[in-house]
């Protein structure tokens, strides 16, 4: 791991991944992209880690987007498919992720926050899809239609104007708001709530949500039933009801 992206594997099963270039507002320069690819891979491969929290160093920016200077220097036209490490897109992940947005999340920063399963934002954060301001495009924003209403999405993409964290919360882009000094605590609290659930149940629940956004009703129901079989047949599926009946906390094994 380079110092462009920091990786903290906590003992509680949470990985905290930090974009660590505050002097460039954590823009997605080559070293940050490479570091983030390595971080996602480490998270996915470590069975002890169950939830990842992605944030940015400093107080001003979560991520200000792509490195425009690099784009000029390389004459970038259509970005290579694997240029940016986007969770569940160019990066294969099977575990939940949380974006802890501590400042501006513009362009590629919005892309990363959108791609994570959940989002906690500082009250001082701002979000924007600014591609129309610099003559670029935002095809990665297509899944946003499953998160916010069409006309709100249309305004955000067509104008490129930033929205506040409060507005992002109101339209459903953000799950929870926190004061700047409480942001990481709020993100870790949400991660802890996920960790309290049975690992295979959490995985099946996440798959159910994603199937529901990608298929029609009948197909999603059928696929979700199939995705849930591993959970239903697990030891944890017996442990949960047993723990409830015995009035104690369940002891999850993930099996």
What is shown here, in short?
This protein is of the alpha/beta class and 255 residues long. It has helices at 30-45, 68-74, 108-115, 150-159, 165-170, 183-195, 199-214, 217-232, 236-245; strands at residues 5-9, 14-19, 51-56, 61-63, 97-101, 104-106, 118-122, 126-128, 163-164, 176-178.
What labels would you give this structure?
Lyase 2-enoyl-coa Hydratase, Chain  A, domain 2; 9 helices; 255 residues; 2-enoyl-CoA Hydratase, Chain A, domain 1; isomerase activity; globular; alpha/beta; 10 strands; 6-stranded mixed sheet; 4-stranded mixed sheet; single chain; 2 domains
Radius of gyration: 19 Å
What percent of residues are in strands? 15-25%
What is the average of the pLDDT values? Answer: 94
Could you give the order of the helices and strands? EEHEEHEEHEEHEHEHHHH
Q: What is the count of structural domains? A: 2
CATH class of the largest domain: Alpha Beta
> What composes the largest sheet?
6 strands, mixed
CATH topology of the largest domain: 2-enoyl-CoA Hydratase, Chain A, domain 1
Q: What is the number of E strands?
A: 10
Query: Architecture of the largest domain, according to CATH?
Result: Alpha-Beta Complex
How are the strands of the biggest sheet laid out side by side?
Answer: 1-2-3-5-7-10
Shape: globular
Relative helix content: 40-55%
Give the oligomer, counting copies of the same chain as homo and different chains as hetero.
Answer: single chain
Catalytic activity: a 4-saturated-(3S)-3-hydroxyacyl-CoA = a (3E)-enoyl-CoA + H2O; a (3S)-3-hydroxyacyl-CoA = a (2E)-enoyl-CoA + H2O
Family: Belongs to the enoyl-CoA hydratase/isomerase family.
Protein name: Enoyl-CoA hydratase/isomerase family protein
Pfam families: ECH_1
